[in-house]
């Protein structure tokens, strides 16, 4: 289930945020330039995350740029997870994301994926 975009739309959009329901976990997929232009999508995803307290994975592997709005969105998801007691894991993220998280001391707010065997 995709909350705020369809799979076809996501494939043709240069940047976006979508929420995928994978059964026991919900995945927030970020791609392209994640900035203030995506505020509406971010708000819709956050509103959907509030309704169910299931583990959340953030997949930022396709992010090419992220400004403070995108970082704030990720921090809001982390805060929601702490408040509602569900884990938030950062699956994959390029340096444009991890460097900023490290710079502001927020790297440890996100769990890391379990190793695969």
UniProtKB/TrEMBL annotation:
Domain of life of the organism encoding this protein: Bacteria
CDD domains linked to this entry: STAS_anti-anti-sigma_factors
Listed SUPFAM superfamilies: SpoIIaa-like
TM stretches of this protein: none
Organism in which the protein naturally occurs: Paraoerskovia sediminicola
Chain segments annotated as coiled-coil in the UniProt record: none
InterPro entries given in the database record: MlaB-like_STAS, STAS_dom, STAS_dom_sf
Record-annotated STAS domain positions: 15-117
Stated name of the protein: STAS domain-containing protein
Top-level taxonomy: Bacteria, Bacillati, Actinomycetota, Actinomycetes, Micrococcales
């Amino acid at each position: 289930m995709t909350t705020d975009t369809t799979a076809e739309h996501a494939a043709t959009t240069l940047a976006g945020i979508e929420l995928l329901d994978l059964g026991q976990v919900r995945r927030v997929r970020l791609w392209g330039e994640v900035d203030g232009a995506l505020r509406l999508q971010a708000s819709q995803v956050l509103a959907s995350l509030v309704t169910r307290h299931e583990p959340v994975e953030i997949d930022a592997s396709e992010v090419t740029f992220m400004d403070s709005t995108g970082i704030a969105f990720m921090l809001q998801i982390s805060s929601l997870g702490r408040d509602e007691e569900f884990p938030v894991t950062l699956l994959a993220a390029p340096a444009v994301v991890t460097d900023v998280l490290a710079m502001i001391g927020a790297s440890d707010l996100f769990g890391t994926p379990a190793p695969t065997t």
